[in-house]
Design a protein that fits this description.
Elements lengths: L2 E6 L9 E6 L8 H10 L1 H14 L7 E5 L7 E6 L8 H21 L4 E4 L11 H18 L6 E6 L2 H12 L1
The chain binds ligand AR6.
Length: 174
Protein backbone atom coordinates (compact mmCIF):
# COMPACT_ATOMS: atom_id res chain seq x y z
CA UNK A 1 0.00 0.00 0.00
CA UNK A 2 1.19 3.50 -0.79
CA UNK A 3 0.52 6.38 1.60
CA UNK A 4 -0.34 9.73 0.02
CA UNK A 5 0.56 12.60 2.34
CA UNK A 6 1.09 16.35 2.25
CA UNK A 7 3.40 18.59 4.21
CA UNK A 8 4.15 22.30 4.13
CA UNK A 9 7.81 23.12 3.62
CA UNK A 10 10.83 23.32 1.35
CA UNK A 11 11.10 20.22 -0.82
CA UNK A 12 14.91 20.40 -0.79
CA UNK A 13 15.07 19.69 2.95
CA UNK A 14 12.85 16.60 3.17
CA UNK A 15 14.59 13.22 2.80
CA UNK A 16 13.06 10.87 0.20
CA UNK A 17 14.40 8.54 -2.48
CA UNK A 18 13.35 10.84 -5.34
CA UNK A 19 12.50 14.55 -5.42
CA UNK A 20 10.45 15.67 -8.42
CA UNK A 21 11.45 18.98 -9.98
CA UNK A 22 9.11 21.34 -11.87
CA UNK A 23 11.64 21.97 -14.65
CA UNK A 24 11.56 23.54 -18.11
CA UNK A 25 12.03 21.58 -21.32
CA UNK A 26 15.63 22.76 -21.71
CA UNK A 27 16.40 21.37 -18.22
CA UNK A 28 18.32 24.61 -17.84
CA UNK A 29 17.42 25.45 -14.26
CA UNK A 30 15.41 28.54 -13.44
CA UNK A 31 13.49 30.11 -10.58
CA UNK A 32 10.97 28.67 -8.15
CA UNK A 33 11.39 25.10 -7.02
CA UNK A 34 13.78 24.41 -9.93
CA UNK A 35 16.12 27.12 -8.72
CA UNK A 36 15.88 25.88 -5.12
CA UNK A 37 16.68 22.29 -6.16
CA UNK A 38 19.73 23.26 -8.22
CA UNK A 39 20.96 25.66 -5.52
CA UNK A 40 20.68 23.08 -2.77
CA UNK A 41 21.83 20.10 -4.85
CA UNK A 42 24.89 21.73 -6.39
CA UNK A 43 26.27 21.85 -9.94
CA UNK A 44 26.37 18.11 -10.66
CA UNK A 45 22.61 18.08 -11.35
CA UNK A 46 22.81 20.78 -14.02
CA UNK A 47 25.82 19.07 -15.61
CA UNK A 48 23.82 15.87 -15.90
CA UNK A 49 20.83 17.79 -17.28
CA UNK A 50 23.04 19.33 -19.98
CA UNK A 51 24.34 15.91 -20.99
CA UNK A 52 20.79 14.57 -21.24
CA UNK A 53 19.62 17.48 -23.41
CA UNK A 54 22.72 17.19 -25.60
CA UNK A 55 22.01 13.50 -26.13
CA UNK A 56 18.25 13.51 -26.62
CA UNK A 57 17.09 17.10 -27.04
CA UNK A 58 14.55 19.06 -25.07
CA UNK A 59 12.26 17.17 -22.71
CA UNK A 60 8.66 17.34 -24.01
CA UNK A 61 5.92 18.66 -21.73
CA UNK A 62 4.42 15.86 -19.65
CA UNK A 63 7.54 13.68 -19.69
CA UNK A 64 10.12 13.05 -16.96
CA UNK A 65 13.79 12.18 -16.67
CA UNK A 66 15.96 11.32 -13.66
CA UNK A 67 19.39 12.57 -12.62
CA UNK A 68 21.44 12.16 -9.48
CA UNK A 69 20.57 14.42 -6.57
CA UNK A 70 23.94 15.96 -5.72
CA UNK A 71 23.91 17.21 -2.13
CA UNK A 72 20.13 16.87 -1.71
CA UNK A 73 18.80 14.36 0.84
CA UNK A 74 17.66 12.05 -1.98
CA UNK A 75 19.09 9.53 -4.46
CA UNK A 76 17.49 11.07 -7.54
CA UNK A 77 15.93 14.23 -8.86
CA UNK A 78 13.20 13.52 -11.38
CA UNK A 79 12.78 16.48 -13.73
CA UNK A 80 9.40 16.90 -15.36
CA UNK A 81 7.98 19.65 -17.53
CA UNK A 82 4.53 20.88 -16.64
CA UNK A 83 2.20 22.57 -19.12
CA UNK A 84 2.22 26.36 -19.37
CA UNK A 85 -1.34 27.49 -18.67
CA UNK A 86 -2.93 29.06 -21.76
CA UNK A 87 -0.71 27.25 -24.26
CA UNK A 88 -2.99 24.21 -24.61
CA UNK A 89 -6.74 23.62 -24.61
CA UNK A 90 -7.80 23.07 -21.00
CA UNK A 91 -8.41 19.31 -21.33
CA UNK A 92 -5.01 18.84 -22.93
CA UNK A 93 -3.34 20.86 -20.17
CA UNK A 94 -4.96 18.67 -17.52
CA UNK A 95 -3.84 15.53 -19.34
CA UNK A 96 -0.29 16.87 -19.70
CA UNK A 97 -0.14 17.71 -16.00
CA UNK A 98 -1.43 14.24 -15.07
CA UNK A 99 1.21 12.80 -17.39
CA UNK A 100 3.93 14.66 -15.43
CA UNK A 101 2.88 12.84 -12.26
CA UNK A 102 2.55 9.44 -13.96
CA UNK A 103 5.85 9.73 -15.84
CA UNK A 104 7.67 10.82 -12.69
CA UNK A 105 6.29 7.87 -10.74
CA UNK A 106 7.33 5.53 -13.59
CA UNK A 107 10.87 6.93 -13.38
CA UNK A 108 10.91 6.48 -9.60
CA UNK A 109 9.67 2.90 -9.80
CA UNK A 110 12.21 2.05 -12.52
CA UNK A 111 14.97 3.15 -10.10
CA UNK A 112 13.63 1.15 -7.15
CA UNK A 113 12.61 4.23 -5.20
CA UNK A 114 10.15 3.71 -2.34
CA UNK A 115 9.45 7.36 -1.44
CA UNK A 116 8.81 10.29 -3.79
CA UNK A 117 8.10 13.97 -3.13
CA UNK A 118 6.28 16.31 -5.54
CA UNK A 119 5.98 20.09 -5.64
CA UNK A 120 2.78 21.59 -7.07
CA UNK A 121 3.95 21.35 -10.69
CA UNK A 122 2.97 24.22 -13.04
CA UNK A 123 1.27 26.29 -10.32
CA UNK A 124 3.99 28.96 -10.05
CA UNK A 125 5.49 30.68 -13.09
CA UNK A 126 3.54 28.37 -15.43
CA UNK A 127 0.24 29.72 -14.09
CA UNK A 128 -1.90 26.58 -13.82
CA UNK A 129 -4.95 27.22 -11.58
CA UNK A 130 -4.09 25.83 -8.17
CA UNK A 131 -7.37 24.03 -7.42
CA UNK A 132 -7.44 22.26 -10.76
CA UNK A 133 -3.75 21.39 -10.46
CA UNK A 134 -4.26 19.91 -6.99
CA UNK A 135 -7.25 17.80 -8.09
CA UNK A 136 -5.33 16.63 -11.16
CA UNK A 137 -2.21 15.77 -9.16
CA UNK A 138 -4.03 13.78 -6.49
CA UNK A 139 -6.20 11.95 -9.03
CA UNK A 140 -3.21 11.04 -11.21
CA UNK A 141 -1.18 9.74 -8.28
CA UNK A 142 -4.15 7.80 -6.86
CA UNK A 143 -4.73 6.17 -10.23
CA UNK A 144 -1.05 5.29 -10.63
CA UNK A 145 -0.69 3.75 -7.16
CA UNK A 146 -3.88 1.74 -7.70
CA UNK A 147 -2.29 0.31 -10.85
CA UNK A 148 1.06 -0.28 -9.10
CA UNK A 149 0.03 -1.24 -5.56
CA UNK A 150 3.43 -2.55 -4.40
CA UNK A 151 5.72 -0.09 -6.14
CA UNK A 152 6.02 2.71 -3.56
CA UNK A 153 5.64 3.22 0.20
CA UNK A 154 4.94 6.93 0.26
CA UNK A 155 4.15 9.84 -2.06
CA UNK A 156 4.51 13.24 -0.47
CA UNK A 157 2.98 16.46 -1.85
CA UNK A 158 5.23 19.24 -0.56
CA UNK A 159 3.54 22.64 -0.45
CA UNK A 160 5.42 25.87 -0.11
CA UNK A 161 2.48 27.89 1.22
CA UNK A 162 -0.06 27.26 3.96
CA UNK A 163 -2.88 27.79 1.45
CA UNK A 164 -1.53 25.12 -0.88
CA UNK A 165 -1.10 22.74 2.04
CA UNK A 166 -4.75 23.27 3.11
CA UNK A 167 -5.89 22.56 -0.44
CA UNK A 168 -3.98 19.26 -0.55
CA UNK A 169 -5.22 18.24 2.92
CA UNK A 170 -8.81 18.74 1.73
CA UNK A 171 -8.26 16.92 -1.54
CA UNK A 172 -6.52 13.97 0.13
CA UNK A 173 -9.41 13.69 2.63
CA UNK A 174 -11.94 13.24 -0.22
N1 LIG B 1 9.71 23.61 -2.14
C1 LIG B 1 8.45 23.28 -2.48
N2 LIG B 1 7.69 23.99 -3.34
C2 LIG B 1 8.27 25.11 -3.87
C3 LIG B 1 9.57 25.53 -3.57
C4 LIG B 1 10.31 24.74 -2.65
N3 LIG B 1 11.57 25.04 -2.31
N4 LIG B 1 9.81 26.67 -4.26
C5 LIG B 1 8.70 26.96 -4.95
N5 LIG B 1 7.76 26.02 -4.71
P1 LIG B 1 7.39 26.96 -9.98
P2 LIG B 1 6.22 25.90 -12.47
C6 LIG B 1 6.41 25.89 -5.28
O1 LIG B 1 7.25 28.35 -10.48
O2 LIG B 1 5.00 26.73 -12.30
C7 LIG B 1 11.09 27.54 -13.22
O3 LIG B 1 11.79 28.70 -13.55
C8 LIG B 1 5.71 27.15 -5.75
O4 LIG B 1 5.14 27.84 -4.66
O5 LIG B 1 8.64 26.58 -9.30
O6 LIG B 1 6.07 24.47 -12.87
C9 LIG B 1 11.41 26.37 -14.15
O7 LIG B 1 12.73 26.45 -14.63
C10 LIG B 1 4.65 26.57 -6.68
O8 LIG B 1 3.52 26.16 -5.93
O9 LIG B 1 7.18 25.87 -11.19
C11 LIG B 1 10.41 26.55 -15.24
O10 LIG B 1 10.85 27.45 -16.22
C12 LIG B 1 5.32 25.31 -7.24
O11 LIG B 1 6.50 25.11 -6.45
C13 LIG B 1 9.20 27.11 -14.53
O12 LIG B 1 9.70 27.78 -13.37
C14 LIG B 1 5.70 25.39 -8.69
O13 LIG B 1 6.15 26.70 -9.02
C15 LIG B 1 8.26 26.04 -14.07
O14 LIG B 1 7.10 26.64 -13.56
Amino acid sequence: MTLLETVQGDITTIPVDAIVNAANSRLAGGGGVDGAIHAAGGPSILEECRRIVAARGHLPTGQAVATGAGRLPARFVIHTVGPIWGRHPEDDAVELLASCYRSSLDEARDRDCRTVSFPAISTGVYGFPKDLACRTAVAAVREWVAEHPDALDRVLFVCFSAGDHERYLEELAR
